[in-house]
Specification:
The structure holds four protein chains of four kinds. By secondary structure, chain B is α/β, with parallel strands linked by helices. Chain B has helices spanning 15-21, 25-33, 64-74, 83-86, 99-107, 139-151, 162-168, 193-196, 213-222, 227-233; strands spanning 4-9, 35-39, 52-56, 77-81, 130-132. Chain B is globular, with a radius of gyration of 19 Å. In chain C, 18% of the residues lie in helices and 29% in strands. Chain C is globular and about 50 Å long. The chains are: A alpha+beta, B alpha/beta, C alpha/beta, D alpha+beta. The structure holds flavin-adenine dinucleotide and iron/sulfur cluster (3 copies).
C-alpha cells in the first residue's frame, strides 16, 4: 500500500497564498487539507472612521484583480445606507464596467492560469515560443477589456471615476465608438478561444453541491439583483447574512461559509446553473459547443463557464454601448444628502457573489463595515471537493495527484489575498 | 546574458503584479529583455537564482521578516513595487487603531490565532535600491525602470509634485471642483492619474523631497477641511510617515 | 521707450539643430585616481575642436543623457582633446565604463574661455582646488606652450589626499620645471606625503606677487571660491584680474533651457569663466 | 494695415472652410466656466466670449514634450535631429497671448537660433480676437498687452453684429481670400473698432500695478523685497504651477528615453519650472537656488526685470494665469509688485 505526502506551499497561478496538504499512510487518507495562509490585512478595521467618499477607494484595495467589483459593491452598499438614488445612465455605465472586468478576468484566468495546465506547460511564457498566435490572441482580448475599463473607469486596477451617486468624469463618445468597433472585431478571437477549449480535455469529476449567485429578471445578473440558491430559492440582498453564515477554522486565516449544505459554490458555474437561460445567443451556442449543460456539478467546468461568460460579455457590451450612445451622455452632479443608516450591496464579480455592508453616522463617516468575498464562500466547497476527489486519484503517481489537486483549486479562480483582507465580523 | 528577475509579494492586493501582466504585448518585450524566474501569480516554474527582485506589499507580521531578508541576501538589486512596499500604503491605516482592538474587532474571540504588528514599508526592514511608486504602479513606470536598470542608469523618480503633470495636461485643478487634493506634496510619475479623471490625488506615490506639508494643510483648511480632517487626508497612503501623526 | 529693433523674423533659414551632437571616438583612456578618469577624444577626420582654454563641451551618451565637461587639454596640442571626468551621476558613471574605441556624442565648444589675450605679459597665479585642476590644466599647458608670451607662472594645487591628486605624471614635471613655481597641499596627508598640509589658502602666504601685474585664476569646488578670492584681494590683486570658472546645472549648453542662470546671467553663454568684478554683486554667484 | 469686415453669420462658414483645409485648434469650453485650446471639428465649438484659457497657446509652439534627437545605440550608433512642423491655425488668441508668442519668437531666434521652435512656428496661422470679457486676475493694462499691433495673421474685433478683421500678414490675407465672404471695412466700422479697443484698455483699470512699466526692475534690484519673499516662501508649495501656466515661461528639461531593446531611443525636452525644488540641483548635491524665497524672487525677476533689461519688454504679459493657478494665492504679480512698491516708498 502506498504512502503519499504532498505539501504544495503557495499554489501558483492564482492570487494570494494557499497550501495543499495531503498525507496518506498505507492507502488510508490521514490528512487532506486546503490551507489558506495569507497575511490578514484587517480591511474593515481601517475603513472605519473614513468618509463615505473614500470607502469605495479603500475597499478597492482589497483585491487588484477584481477591484472594479469591490468598488461597485462598496458604492451600492454606501448608496443603500445613505438612500442615494442613481440615474439610468450611471446604472448603464456600471453594467459596462462590470462586464468589462468579467471579460478581462476570465481571459486572464482561462488563458494564463488554467490553459497552461491543459497543454502541460508550467506557465504562459513558454507558450510564447510554442503557441505564439494563441498567446497574442489572449493578450489582444485582455488589452481590449483593460482599455474598456480604462475608458469607463479611468483605470482598470483601482478605478478612479466611479463615485457615490455616479461618475467624476464621463468617457468621450469618440472613445466609446472606437472601443465598440474593437469589440465587434474581437468576436473571431472569441470563436478561436472556443475552438481551442474544445480541443482541451477537462478533468471529469462531479460532486453535487448548492450553487448561489445574483439573479434578476431583466438580465444575466452581474451588477444588480437578488440572491438565488439552487437549494433555497431567492432572497433579498439585505438579509445576505442568513445565506453566508461565516465561521472560523484553525487551518485558515480566511473564514468559511455554509448555507443549506455544509458548503456552497459561487462563481461563473453558479451563475450559469442559475441564469443560463438569460445568456446572449453567442454565449448559448458556445456553451453547447463546449458541452456545458445546466445543472453542471463538475467544478473544473467553472473555467468553461468563464469562456461562455466571456462570449456573453462581448455581445452584452456591444448592446449596452449602443443603448448608452442612443441615450447620449449627460453630465450629472447630484448633491448627496447625508443621513445615518446601514445598507448592503451585492454584485457578482468574476469569482462569484460579493457582499458589502456599511453603517454610517449622520456626518457620512463609516462606523461599521463588513465584506464577504466570493473566495471565502468557496473555501469550504474546495475542501469538500478535495476530500471527494482524492480517493479517485489514489492509484495515480504522486506528481499527477499534486497537479490534479492544484488544478481543482485553480478551477475556482480563487483570490486568497481577498479572502483574508476582510473577514466577516460578529458585532462583538 | 539576460539578468534574472523574480517577483515576490507580502501583504498586498497583487494589483501591482497584475499591472505587469497587463502590459499585454509589451510583456513579450519584457521577457525578451529579462529572464523571469519566479512570479507566483503567473508562473509555476520557479528558481531562487535571481539578481533583481521586485517586492510588492507591506510587512505586517513577524513571519514575513526572515522571508524578506532571504530575498535581500539573494538579490543584487531589490526594487520596492507599489505603495504598500514603497511607503506602507493603505495597510498603514490599521496602525492608527490600537492593535489589540483591531484584532478583536475582526477575529472576535480567536484574535490570538492571527499575529500581526504595525504595517510598514519594505525599507523599514531591509535596504531598498529603487522604488516604483503608486497604487497601482503605472505600467510605463515599470518598463522604464527595467530599461534603466539594463542601461546601468539610476532609475529616476520625479522629485517634482503631481501638480506639474496635472498642469501639463491642462486639467482643471480639482480644488476648483470642490475636492481636497494632495497633488502639491505628492511625487509625480503617474501622469496625475486621478485629477485627470476629476478625482483628487490621495498621495499614493509618497511625498516629494522637502515637501511643505504645513502649507498643504493650510490650503486644505482654506478650502474647507478642519485641521483633523486635513491630517486625516495624509493617513490614506502616507500613514507610515510623520506627516500623518 | 521703444522695443529694441523688433522685426517679424522670417524663419526660412535651415540650419542643423543646436542640440544635435557630432559623433566622436575615444582614442585613449587613463584612470587618474579612483574617482577620475581621463579620456582622449578624436572628432571624425581628426578635425580640430577649435576650443579656447576654459571652454566646455556637452558629452552625450545616447540613452543615458548629456553632461557639461571642461576641455582639459590645451588647444596648442592638436589632433584630439582630453576630458577628465569624475563619476558622480548617470552620464559620468556610464562614461567611466567606456574604453578606447567607444563612440560618444560631442557638442560645443561652448561658453567663454579664459581671457588669454588680456593675460599676455602678465604674471599668472593658478589656484586649482581638486577637480578645478581639470579646466586650469588646459590654460597651464597653453601658457607653458607659449611660455615667452607670459610673465611668472605660480601654480597652487590643493587635493583632499595625495591619492586624489590628478595628473600625477604632469605634477612630477611641474615640481621640477624651471618655467613655473609649483606649490601643492593636501587636506589630509598619508605616510608618503612630505609637503604642505592644509587647505589651499594656506599656500598664499608662501608667495609674494606684484599685484598690478598679476592675474589670479581660481577654479575649484563652490565652497572654495569665497576664501581664495579673499586671499587674492589680500595680495592686492584688482577685482578685474581675479578670474573664476563656475559650475551650474546645464541641460542644453546653448542658453535656452534656463537651468544655469545666475541672476540674469546664463553661465553656459557668458561663462563659465568670469572676472570677479562682473559677479561680485551677484548674490547667487559665489 | 488693411481692414476688412465679415458679418457674424459669415464667420462660421469661413471657419468651417478653414477646418476643411487644415488642422484647426481654438478656444473651447472644457467644463462650465473653464476654457482650453483644443482641436475644432466644427466652428460651433469655438467660444470667443472667454476670460482666459487654462494653458496658453504656447503648447502648440513649445509642446509640453518635444522630441529633439532620434538615436540608435550599439554597433551602428548614430543620431539625427527631429523637426516637426505641420500647418495649424490657432483661433481666438487674446492680445496678451499674441504678445507672449512674439516674445518667444524673439528669444528662440536670439543668439543660438533654435530650429526646432522655428520650424514648428513657421506654418502656424494665428487668428487673434480682442478681449470681450477681461479676466479678474488679468492686468494687461499695466503690462502694455491689452492690445497688439503685430504678431498675428488676422485679428478679429467684435463691433456688435459683425467683426472687423485686421490683416497682419500676407498669409492672413490669403486665408481670407481663399475661404471667407468678406468686404473692405468702412471708415465708420474702423472707428467703431478703435473705440471698442480703447474701452478694452480701460476695462483693466480695476486691477493695475501701481509702479510704472519701466519702474519694475528697480523694485526687484539688489536685496529689495527680502522680507516679502521670505513671507511668501513660508506658504509656497514649490509646485511650479505659476511657471507651467505662464505664456512667457519657456524653461525646459532634457532627457533621454530608450526602448526596451536598448537600441532605439530619443532625446526630448519637456517643460520645467524654476520654482521646482531640483531645478538648480547638480550631481554632487549642491543646489544653487535651494531657498524657496530665492526661487520666488527669481521668477518675479524673470517677469519684471531680466527680460526687460535684455529685450526692452517685460517677461510678463499680465494674463493672470499664475495668480489663479497658485493654491496658496502667493503668486499674483500685481500684489507682489504693489507690495514691493509700498515697501520701497
Ligand atoms: C561648465 C562645467 C564644466 C564641468 N567640467 C567637469 C569636468 O571637467 N569633469 C567632471 O567630472 N565634471 C565636470 N562638471 C560637472 C559635471 O557636468 C557633472 O558632474 C555632470 O553634469 C553630472 O552628470 P551625471 O549625468 O553624471 O549626473 P546626473 O545623473 O545628472 O546627476 C544628478 C543625479 O543625481 C541625482 N540627485 C538628486 N539629488 C541629489 C543629491 N542631493 N545628491 C546627489 N545626487 C542627487 C539627480 O536626481 C540625478 O539623478 C562640469 C560642470 C559644468 C557646469
Ligand atoms: S494622482 Fe495621486 S493618488 Fe492618483 S495615482 Fe497619481 S499620485 Fe496616486
Ligand atoms: S504656484 Fe504658488 S505654490 Fe506653486 S510654486 Fe508658484 S508660488 Fe509656489
Ligand atoms: S507671470 Fe503670471 S501674469 Fe505674467 S504672463 Fe506669466 S502667468 Fe501671466
Amino acid at each position: 500500500m502506498r504512502n503519499i505526502n504532498i505539501n504544495v506551499e503557495h499554489v501558483t497561478r492564482l492570487e494570494g497564498h494557499g497550501n495543499i496538504v495531503v498525507n496518506v499512510k498505507e492507502g488510508r487518507i490521514e490528512e487532506c487539507m486546503w490551507k489558506v495562509v495569507e497575511a490578514p490585512r484587517f480591511f474593515e478595521a481601517f475603513v472605519r472612521g473614513r468618509s463615505y467618499l473614500e470607502v469605495s477607494h479603500l475597499t478597492s484595495r482589497i483585491c487588484g484583480i477584481c477591484s472594479i467589483g469591490h468598488t461597485l459593491a462598496s458604492l451600492k452598499a454606501t448608496e443603500a445606507a445613505l438612500g442615494v438614488e442613481i440615474s439610468e445612465q450611471t446604472k448603464l455605465l456600471r453594467r459596462i464596467l462590470i462586464q468589462g472586468e468579467n471579460l478581462q478576468s476570465h481571459v486572464l484566468h482561462a488563458y494564463f492560469l488554467v490553459a497552461p495546465d491543459l497543454v502541460g506547460a508550467p506557465s504562459v511564457f513558454p507558450l510564447v515560443a510554442t503557441h505564439p498566435e494563441v498567446v497574442l490572441r489572449a493578450l489582444r482580448m485582455k488589452k481590449l477589456a483593460n482599455d474598456l475599463c480604462d475608458i469607463f473607469g479611468g483605470r482598470t486596477v483601482h478605478p478612479i471615476t466611479p463615485t457615490v451617486g455616479g461618475f467624476t468624469k464621463l468617457p468621450g463618445t469618440g472613445e466609446i465608438k472606437a472601443i465598440r468597433q474593437r469589440l465587434v472585431e474581437a468576436i473571431p478571437d472569441l470563436e478561436a478561444t472556443v475552438a481551442l477549449f474544445k480541443t482541451l480535455t477537462i478533468p471529469q469529476f462531479e460532486r453535487e453541491t448548492e450553487y448561489i449567485a445574483l439573479t434578476s429578471d431583466e438580465e444575466y445578473a452581474l451588477y444588480d439583483g437578488d440572491i438565488a440558491s439552487t437549494d433555497a430559492g431567492v432572497t433579498k440582498v439585505a438579509n445576505y447574512r442568513s445565506v453566508t453564515n461565516e465561521y472560523l477554522v484553525p487551518q485558515s486565516t480566511a473564514k468559511y461559509t455554509r448555507n443549506k449544505r455544509d458548503s456552497y459554490f459561487v462563481g461563473a458555474l453558479a451563475r450559469f446553473n442559475l441564469n443560463h437561460r438569460q445568456l446572449s445567443p453567442l454565449a448559448k451556442t458556445v456553451a453547447e459547443e463546449l458541452g456545458l449543460k445546466a445543472p453542471c456539478h463538475n467544478p473544473f467546468f467553472n473555467t468553461v463557464a468563464q469562456v461562455v461568460e466571456a462570449a456573453h460579455a462581448a455581445e452584452e457590451l456591444i448592446r449596452l454601448i449602443d443603448d448608452l450612445l442612443s441615450r447620449g451622455l449627460r453630465r450629472e452632479n447630484g448633491e448627496i444628502k447625508l443621513r445615518a443608516g446601514t445598507g448592503a450591496g451585492a454584485v457578482d464579480v468574476p469569482r462569484g457573489i460579493l457582499f458589502h455592508e456599511y453603517t454610517y453616522d449622520d456626518q457620512g463617516i463609516c462606523r461599521e463595515a463588513n465584506c464577504i468575498i466570493p473566495t471565502n464562500q468557496n473555501h469550504a466547497n474546495i475542501q469538500k471537493d478535495m476530500e471527494a476527489f482524492l480517493p479517485l486519484l489514489l492509484d495515480k503517481p504522486e506528481e499527477e495527484i499534486r497537479l490534479k489537486l492544484e488544478m481543482l483549486v485553480r478551477a475556482y479562480d480563487p483570490c486568497i489575498s481577498c479572502s483574508t483582507h476582510l473577514l466577516d465580523v460578529k458585532f462583538v | 546574458m539576460k539578468p534574472k528577475v523574480a517577483f515576490f509579494d507580502f501583504a498586498s492586493c497583487e494589483g501591482c503584479q497584475l499591472q505587469i501582466v497587463n502590459l499585454e504585448a509589451e510583456m513579450l518585450d519584457v521577457i525578451g529583455a529579462v529572464d523571469i524566474v519566479q512570479f507566483r501569480e503567473a508562473m509555476t516554474e520557479s528558481s531562487d537564482d535571481y539578481s533583481i527582485a521586485f517586492v510588492e506589499g507591506s510587512i505586517t507580521r513577524e513571519k514575513d521578516i526572515p522571508r524578506l531578508k532571504k530575498i535581500r541576501e539573494q538579490a543584487a538589486v531589490l526594487v520596492a513595487l507599489g505603495s504598500c512596499a514603497t511607503i506602507g500604503g493603505v495597510n498603514c491605516l490599521k496602525n492608527f487603531q490600537p492593535l489589540e482592538e483591531v484584532r478583536r474587532y475582526v477575529y472576535g474571540d480567536r484574535a490570538h490565532w492571527y499575529e500581526t504588528f504595525a504595517a510598514r514599508p519594505i525599507d523599514s526592514v531591509v535596504p531598498v535600491d529603487f522604488y516604483i511608486h503608486g497604487c497601482p504602479i503605472n505600467k510605463e513606470d515599470f518598463v522604464k525602470t527595467v530599461t534603466e536598470l539594463l542601461l546601468g542608469k539610476t532609475p529616476e523618480t520625479p522629485s517634482y509634485p503631481v501638480c506639474v503633470e496635472c498642469k501639463l495636461k491642462g486639467n482643471v485643478c480639482v480644488f476648483e471642483l470642490g475636492r481636497f487634493c494632495l497633488g502639491p506634496v505628492t511625487r509625480a510619475g503617474c501622469g496625475s492619474w486621478c485629477p485627470t479623471y476629476q478625482d483628487n490625488c490621495t498621495g499614493c506615490r509618497g511625498l516629494i523631497p522637502h515637501p511643505n506639508t504645513d502649507a498643504e494643510k493650510e490650503v486644505l483648511q482654506k478650502y474647507g477641511l478642519t485641521v483633523e480632517q486635513a491630517v486625516g487626508q495624509f493617513r490614506v497612503f502616507l500613514g507610515y510617515g510623520e506627516v500623518a501623526k | 521707450m521703444t522695443t529694441k529693433g523688433l522685426v517679424q523674423r522670417d524663419f526660412q533659414r535651415d540650419e542643423g539643430s543646436i542640440y544635435l551632437p557630432q559623433l566622436a571616438r575615444i582614442v585613449r583612456t587613463e584612470q587618474l585616481t579612483a574617482m577620475e578618469k581621463l579620456f582622449e577624444i578624436q572628432l571624425s577626420g581628426a578635425r580640430e575642436l577649435g576650443h579656447q582654454p576654459g571652454q566646455f563641451v556637452e558629452v552625450s551618451l545616447f540613452g543615458i543623457g548629456e553632461a557639461p565637461i571642461s576641455i582639459s587639454s590645451s588647444p596648442t596640442r592638436k589632433g584630439s582633446f582630453e576630458l577628465a571626468v569624475r563619476a558622480v551621476g548617470n552620464v559620468t558613471r556610464a562614461l567611466h565604463r567606456l574604453e578606447a574605441g567607444a563612440t560618444v556624442g560631442i557638442r560645443g565648444p561652448f561658453g567663454k574661455g579664459f581671457p588669454v589675450e588680456g593675460m599676455k605679459g602678465k604674471d599668472i597665479l593658478f589656484v586649482a582646488g581638486g577637480i578645478g585642476l581639470v579646466p586650469l590644466r588646459s590654460l597651464i599647458n597653453y601658457v607653458l606652450d607659449r611660455r615667452e608670451d607670459f610673465g611668472r607662472m605660480i601654480v597652487f594645487f590643493g587635493a583632499k589626499t595625495p591619492a586624489e591628486q590628478l595628473f600625477s605624471g604632469e605634477l612630477a614635471k611641474w615640481r621640477v620645471s624651471g618655467d613655473m613655481e609649483y606649490l601643492e597641499t593636501v587636506d589630509r596627508a598619508d605616510e608618503s606625503w612630505r609637503g604642505n598640509i592644509g587647505v589651499i589658502t594656506t599656500l598664499f602666504p608662501k608667495i609674494t606677487v606684484n599685484p598690478m601685474r598679476t592675474v589670479a585664476v581660481i577654479v575649484g569646488p563652490p565652497v572654495m571660491y569665497r576664501f581664495a578670492i579673499l586671499e587674492a584681494q589680500v595680495k592686492g590683486i584688482p577685482y578685474d584680474q581675479i578670474i573664476v570658472s563656475l559650475e551650474r546645472r546645464m541641460k542644453c549648453g546653448v542658453g535656452k533651457c534656463g537651468h544655469c542662470q545666475m541672476g540674469d546671467i546664463y553661465v553656459c553663454q557668458e561663462g563659465p569663466v568670469f572676472t570677479y568684478a562682473t559677479i561680485k554683486d551677484l548674490k547667487e554667484a559665489i | 494695415m488693411s481692414f476688412f469686415t465679415i458679418d457674424k453669420k459669415n464667420f462660421p462658414p469661413f471657419l468651417d472652410n478653414v477646418i476643411k483645409a487644415m488642422d484647426v485648434v481654438g478656444v473651447k469650453e472644457k467644463i462650465p466656466g473653464k476654457f482650453e485650446y483644443a482641436p475644432l471639428e466644427d466652428s460651433s465649438e469655438l467660444c470667443l466670449d472667454y476670460d482666459v484659457t487654462i494653458l496658453p497657446p504656447k503648447k502648440y509652439l513649445l509642446p509640453t514634450r518635444e522630441s529633439l534627437v532620434k538615436f540608435t545605440r550599439g554597433e551602428n550608433t548614430g543620431c539625427e535631429a527631429v523637426f516637426d512642423g505641420k500647418p495649424l491655425a490657432i483661433v481666438g488668441v487674446h492680445p496678451y497671448d499674441i504678445k507672449a508668442i512674439s516674445q518667444l519668437d524673439r528669444i528662440f531666434a536670439d543668439q543660438n537660433p533654435d530650429e526646432h521652435y522655428a520650424k514648428r512656428r513657421k506654418d502656424k496661422i494665428i487668428i487673434g480676437s480682442d478681449v470681450k470679457r477681461p479676466y479678474r486676475f488679468a492686468f494687461c493694462g499695466s503690462m502694455k498687452s491689452a492690445l497688439v499691433e503685430y504678431g498675428y495673421d488676422l485679428l478679429l474685433t467684435d463691433i456688435g453684429d459683425r467683426y472687423v478683421l485686421a490683416v497682419g500678414t500676407k498669409k492672413g490675407a490669403e486665408l481670407l481670400a481663399a475661404h471667407a465672404e468678406y468686404r473692405a471695412a468702412t471708415e465708420e466700422e474702423i472707428s467703431r473698432r478703435s473705440a471698442i479697443r480703447k474701452s478694452i484698455v480701460a476695462s483693466y483699470n480695476e486691477n493695475t500695478v501701481l509702479a510704472a512699466y519701466e519702474e519694475l526692475p528697480e523694485l526687484l534690484a539688489g536685496e529689495a523685497g527680502k522680507g516679502l519673499f521670505d513671507e511668501l516662501a513660508e506658504k509656497c508649495l514649490s509646485c511650479g504651477s505659476c511657471n507651467l501656466v505662464c505664456p512667457t515661461c519657456y524653461c525646459f528639461d532634457v532627457r533621454d528615453e530608450v526602448s526596451l531593446n536598448l537600441v532605439e531611443g530619443e532625446r526630448f525636452r519637456k517643460w520645467d519650472g524654476c520654482l521646482l525644488d531640483g531645478f538648480a540641483l547638480v550631481a554632487t548635491g549642491e543646489n544653487f537656488r535651494e531657498d524657496r524665497a530665492d526661487r520666488i524672487k527669481h521668477r518675479l525677476s524673470r517677469k519684471g526685470r531680466y527680460i526687460y533689461e535684455k529685450y526692452g519688454e517685460h517677461g510678463c504679459v499680465g494674463c493672470g494665469r499664475c495668480a489663479s493657478a497658485c493654491l496658496p494665492d502667493i503668486a499674483n504679480p500685481v500684489e507682489i509688485f504693489n507690495r514691493l512698491k509700498e515697501g520701497v516708498r
